[in-house]
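Lab notebook: predicted structure, single chain.

Context: the supervisor wants predicted structures on file for every construct in the current expression panel, including those that have not yet been purified. This is the next one on the list. No modifications to the sequence; it matches the entry in the shared construct table.
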Amino acid sequence: MSQYAELKAQIEKLQAQADEARRAELANVIAEIRQKITEFGLSASDLGFAESRRRGRPPKKAPLPAKYQDPKTGTTWSGRGKPPRWIAGKNRDRFLIEK
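Prediction complete. Output recorded below exactly as produced.
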């Protein structure tokens, strides 16, 4: 058998031994970690694990404060988007809400 083949066989044997040692120690390590988490009342965020982001639409933003008000009906408009009929084509200064 060549030296390369012998070394490759040794690597495989050592890797198998390392995998077995890891499996043997893993149960004890997990038990210790669980005990510490319970003892100190830790959560995933305490340990630095980021919570997964939600999928889908982002949450709605808070509505903008009203900037204009119809004196007849009291309805308001923030000044963004399509203007309502009561203000469309008119001088908007008349409808400004005083602060």
